[in-house]
Amino acid sequence: MTSVSPRPHSWDVAGSYFEACNCDAICPCRTVGDRAGGRSTHGICQFALSWLIDKGRADDVSLNDLAVVMAGWYDDDEPSSPWRVSLYVDDRADDAQHESLTAIFLGRAGGTVWDNFAAAIGTVHEVRRARIALSHVPRRWLIRATTFVSVSARVPVDAPAAVACGIPGLDRPGQEVISDTLQVSDPPLSWDLHGRCGFATDFHYSGTPRGSGFA
Questions:
Q1: Residue 5: its pLDDT value, please?
Q2: What is the pLDDT, as a whole number, of residue 4?
Q3: DSSP 3-state helix, strand, coil percentages of the chain (rounded to 5)?
Q4: Where are the beta strands (DSSP E) in the chain?
């Protein structure tokens, strides 16, 4: 198990977001126009998520130009569908930045991250420093986290209405894509998938430890 990182008192991060999972496109978990999201295609969702921070801070610590990746899975039929994840933090981050990013993206700092997705996290297998390479450029979507996570996508998917995902926020519609590869190799997380779904948009999270379920 990972140790608990100190929680920043005030924080704000914004930038671009890209994810892929093992669902068929358009991912049924997303909203499409007025249609609400539902169960994953296969009942078990395996995913890789990435955030590239353009501007960010945690108290007086700058988080500009840093990146975070998360890989994990959940079972639709398990009570509460808890996520089991590993978190990969940019190896360019110093200790203070690493602690802040860990606290924010695991939801330990509360705020928007807790509200949008982190309340679902049940098990954290690892928090690792990783050499992260991200491209959130249309038709050149890419996630690399050392040898642990590898995702690529080039093909956008036409949708009948605006597509949105709850992780970056349903107020931030984006582009559904088909992923060429979705590979995770960091036991107990392990899969090698092709031709599944992905999603790209922007994000803006903020919060304080007193908000969203934290004392």
A1: 57
A2: 56
A3: 10, 50, 40
A4: 11-21, 31-32, 44-58, 61-62, 67-75, 83-90, 121-130, 132-135, 141-145, 149-156, 163-164, 175-186, 189-193, 196-207
Q: What is the dihedral of CA 156, 192, 41, 153, to 10 degrees?
A: -10
Q: Indicate left, alpha or beta for 84 from its phi (over 0: left) and psi (-120 to 50: alpha).
A: beta
* HSE-up of residue 185 (Cα within 13 Å, Cβ side): 9
Q: What is the pLDDT of residue 158?
A: 95
Instruction: Round to whole Å and give the CA distance between 89 and 68.
Output: 5
The answer to whether the CB of 16 falls within 8 A of the CB of 54 is yes
Q: What span, in angstroms and rounded, lies between the C-alpha atoms of 62 and 131?
A: 19
Taken in order 112, 196, 76, 132, the sign of the CA dihedral is: negative
Q: What pLDDT does 209 receive?
A: 44
The ranges of the chain with pLDDT < 50 are: 1-2, 209-215
Contact 184, 83 (CB under 8 A): no
- DSSP state at residue 82: -
| Cis upstream peptide for 132 (omega within 30°) | no
pLDDT value of residue 7: 80
Question: Could you tell me the two tokens for 213?
Answer: 């379920």
